[in-house]
Amino acid sequence: MYYFGIRIHQNREYLYVTQNPSVVQSANAVFNADWNNRKAPAFAHRVLVLSPGTSASQLLEVIDQPGPIDVESEELGPYAVILDALAAKGRDLRLILPANINHVGQRDVAFLRQHGCQVRLMPVKPIYQHSKMIVGGSLAFIGSENFTQASLEDNREMGLLLNGSSIGKLQAQFNRDWARAGRHG
């Protein structure tokens, strides 16, 4: 069962509900490892986009897929690995960030625009852009990972790679958000 593009306390979030035993077992194993101050088991890294550990390479897989990609994030960087991959997409990248990004975020936006990337800033009201999502033609990502070095290499963050019918649902919500962000500059 899927729920996408929901509003939680006036935030844009993406929620994925599943009974897939691999995903459920992996998420439970990560919780238990964290609770007991241990490393997450290796099998969880194969099922989940999990940081620290494997998330940057999995996000690059989604970014580097052929064709256009759409991205929503609360934060960007500075993290050259992700920024350079996004910049390489040029006009094939549409990115939405919240309008209240800091000076580092503004610098990252200028860098991406210099590479032809399309960037829009979502007003913080009525819906604050808090979600983290990448969607392309065949692969997508949703999760808690901001596209920053701290989030991808230091913090405990978790997400999923998705395909199939999830692609269309994520794309539809992104298009609604893109239109909303476009009305505000």
Automatic annotation (TrEMBL):
Pfam families: PLDc_2. Residues 83-178 form the Phospholipase D-like domain. CDD domains: PLDc_unchar1_2 (cd09128). InterPro entries: PLD-like_dom. This is Phospholipase D-like domain-containing protein.
